[in-house]
Amino acid sequence: QELVSGESEEESNGVNLMEFSDEILLHILSYVPCTDLVLNVRKTCRKLATLCLDKSLTHTVLLQKDYKVNKDKVKQLMRDIGKEIYQLNMAGCYWLHSSTIDHVIRCKNLVKLNLSGCHITSLRLSKMLSTLQHLRSLAIDVNPGFDASQLSSECKATLSRVSELKQTLYTPSYGVVPCCTSLEKLLLYFEILDRSREGFMLSGQLMVGESNVPHYQNLRVFYARLAPGYVNQEVVRLYLAVLSDRTPENLHAFLISAPGSFAETGATKNLLDSMARNARLDALQLPKAWINGSGLLQHLKFNNPFYFSFSRCTLSGGHLIQRVINGGKDLKSLTSLNLSGCVHCLAPESLFRKAEDDIDSSILESLVVSCCNLRHLNLSAAHHHSSESIGNHLCQLLSRLKHLLSLALPVCSITDVAANMEKPPTQSNVVPQTFGKKVRVGIQTYPRNLMDQAKQKIESSVFWTLMGSLRFLETLEIIGSSFSSAMPRNEPAIRNSLPPCVRAQSVGDSEVAAISQLTYLQSLTLAQLPNIITGSGLISIGLQCQHLRTLSLANLGMMGKVVYMSALMDMLKHCKCLRDLRLEQPYFSAGAQFFQALSHCSSLQRLCIVSRSGTLQSDAVMSFMANCLEVIMCHMFMGESLTVCKNLQQSIVRSFQADRPALNVVIFPLLHEDLTEVIRDVPMRHLDEITLFKSRVAEEPPNLWW
Questions:
Q1: What is the Cα–Cα distance from 106 to 79, expressed in whole angstroms?
Q2: Which of 452, 472, 477 is nearest to 519 (CA)?
Q3: What is the pLDDT, as a whole number, of residue 555?
Q4: Which helix (H) or strand (E) holds 511?
Q5: From its phi and psi, is residue 521 left (phi > 0), alpha (psi between -120 and 50) or beta?
Q6: What is the distance between the alpha carbons of residues 82 and 616, in angstroms, rounded to a whole number?
Q7: DSSP secondary structure of 87-102
Q8: pLDDT of residue 296
Q9: Which of 159, 488, 591, 632 has the most Cβ atoms closer than 10 angstroms to its Cβ?
């Protein structure tokens, strides 16, 4: 009887979830996907049935990465709470048929709608928008076959009230821009290919009937991002032509991201001159050809700037300090700065300077002092070599930026100069970077215990100190200054890679171990670290960085052998939150042991492996896909034959597509001549976020789109 009474007393003292206040329960439920709340959780009891339909939970519905959502779930969701939804994000739901998108019509009160990456025709768009009279923010794709003349008068009336538009163009067109007469924010993504699938060259001239003039008079934000190709440049010039005639009075953000050479013309020069006279900007990004050698920055006026990008410009540190941050004056408003590829941005002059020369620490110090509230900083794709001066190392200066959330650095910039001077790398531990005959490499002696290794470095390594000072860093990229991915964009795969910088030769396992101090790290990219011998630092990261969601590793250690495979497999066993994994390494063997270790990553959703002469084990891949139920993307570009790749791809699709509606599988030989044709069919969400390698820190202004 005493035992029974003790148990009943324990039950009575236990915590019952339903006894929590409504406020606490609503906060807990806010972490549950809306589809689960409406279709499952609310069926459990009366109290949850009421709470799950609370306005705080149904006001904004996010489906953009709900890979399990299907046609039936969308239909039921819209039927149950459609009238309660004010913001709906379906971006990247490429697996949903256009007929499924029709159910959005039920959301009569929509104010914001994101359909980027969704299949929708101009007729379906017209029917939908005709009923959404309260819409103010819209994101869509413009695909081949889009015809603005098919838009009804009711649809155009809705568009005339839209103030924010994000438009991704896959064909030369103005899209719906001419209909949006009240635009304040315009985001344009140009993804037009130079050739059609049939091999015909495309023209950037807009079709007859597409020559309506865009309305920019109320524009506050103009953003354009171009994929490689001359057609994208031709089309964006047509969008800019109207701006060159008259600059909007309230324009405060003007951003154009263009790869390669995008020459300045008379029209663009008139536009920039007009901006210099009439606009006060808060955010700026221009093609390098528009800035290089011009005095533009000297004449532009800034208000309270929060974002600057001078990616790949030849801007010198002297010009940066004098013309951008006003000689080192207070610039606390700046939160995001992209200097990727600016090889001279930390040097006083660029005229007679070599890219490998030491930086001027006083310029970086002025930058750090003036922009003390930086949260996102990109210094990658350049040789930023610190001098021997004590206390003036790049890592020591950056450690003052306590608010940093994301940081991108070249590998050679984290080298401890003093340590290198004391212990120059010997011939035995210089890592070969060729694909030729393999060379036996003498293995350095490392402490058995990882903590002992950390203690040896903690007092002497400037990079260790930097990592220790940036406790709240969420995104870190350490990329070799000469690294280039073998994965193409619109061209054949790159067959040869450039050797790493000489200063980077000593960067290896101990530097990787230093990263494990970043407790809140969510995204990590490591590329072209030549002195990786065992990969032991990866294990430390796996153990300590429990919030890690995205991991990208490329060309670590010697190029003829994957020396860190054992450590990587040990690391993966601890990465319970990992969702995206990208590996790029020649001769990578994706066998049973690797996939068995990867199966411990229970949250994994996307996997991409790029490997010249790499091999895979089909049975191991199938077993992995069966064990990891969350995986919806599997991209492998290896050295296997076309037959092996096609058979495996078909087997995966046939076995798992029915239960995973968003499943996207591409397995193809890396050096095959048709690779670019295969790449063009990959959903933009995956292509942009994981398949293609690039630096993503400060790539765009923060909170550019909801």
A1: 7
A2: 472
A3: 96
A4: helix 509-514
A5: beta
A6: 46
A7: EEE-TT-TTS-HHHHG
A8: 80
A9: 159
- Comparing 450 with 180, the larger pLDDT belongs to 180
d(CA 601, CA 580): 10
How far is Cα 195 from Cα 229, in angstroms, rounded to an integer?
10
The answer to whether residues 170 and 206 touch, using CB atoms and an 8 Å cutoff, is no
- pLDDT value of position 495: 65
Cα 187 from Cα 173, distance rounded (Å)? 14
Residues 6+ apart with CB under 8 A from 362: none
Which whole-number Å values give the CA distances from 2 to 6, 9, 88, 432, in the listed order? 6, 10, 57, 74
Task: Please say whether the beta carbons of 561 and 464 come within 8 A.
Answer: no
Residue 378 amino acid letter: N
Cα separation, 308 vs 321, in Å, equals 13
Please tell me what DSSP assigns to residue 691.
I
Closest alpha carbon to 680 in 691, 669, 693, 695: 691
Q: How far apart are CA 463 and CA 460, in angstroms?
A: 9
Backbone Cα Rg of the chain: 27
The vertex-568 CA angle with 566 and 569, nearest 5°, equals: 65
State both tokens at 12: 């009575």
Give per-residue pLDDT as tens, 256-299: 999 988 988 888 888 898 898 888 999 999 999 898 766 788 88
- CA 583 vs CA 477, 685, 692: distances in Å: 14, 18, 11
Q: DSSP secondary structure string, 313-363?
A: ----HHHIIIIISTTT---TT--EEE-TT-TTTTSS-SSS--TTSBP-HHH
What angle do the packed helices 450-458 and 536-544 form, to 10 degrees? 90
Of 561, 451, 464, the closest CA to residue 507 belongs to 464
Sequence-distant (≥ 6) Cβ neighbours of residue 501 within 8 angstroms: 356, 383, 410, 411, 412, 480, 481, 482
Which tokens sit at 242? 């109207």
If we measure between CA atoms, which residue out of 100, 179, 85, 202 comes closest to residue 132? 85
* Integer Cα distance of 492 and 487 in angstroms: 8
* Cα–Cα distance, 443 to 33 (Å, whole number): 49
Joined tokens for residue 536: 């032991």
Determine the residue type at 182.
Answer: S
Q: Which two tokens stand for residue 558?
A: 């010697």
Instruction: Indicate the angle between helix axes 618-627 and 642-656, nearest 10 degrees.
Output: 20
Q: What is the pLDDT of residue 453?
A: 52
Cα 209 from Cα 646, distance rounded (Å): 43
What residues are paired with 168 via a beta bridge? 141, 189
With CA atoms as reference, report the closest residue to 526 among 543, 504, 544.
Answer: 504
Q: Which of 146, 83, 140 is nearest to 115 (CA)?
A: 140
Residue whose entry in the numeric block shows the structure tokens 């940036």: 470
Strand boundaries in 333-473, DSSP class E: 336-338, 376-378, 406-410
d(CA 463, CA 102): 53
Nearest C-alpha neighbor of 396 from the set 472, 478, 476, 462: 462
Q: Average of pLDDT values for 117-124?
A: 94
DSSP string covering 155-181, please? Answer: HHHHHHT--EEEEEESSS--TTGGG-T
Q: How far apart are CA 539 and CA 564, in angstroms?
A: 10
CA distance 548 to 542: 8
Q: Which two tokens stand for residue 318?
A: 């002297």
pLDDT in tens, 553-588: 999 998 888 999 999 999 999 999 999 999 999 999
Integer Cα distance of 77 and 524 in angstroms = 36
Report how far residue 530's alpha carbon sits from residue 646's, in angstroms, rounded to the nearest whole number: 34
Which residue type occupies 38? V
Task: Confirm if 593 and 567 have CB atoms less than 8 A apart.
Answer: no
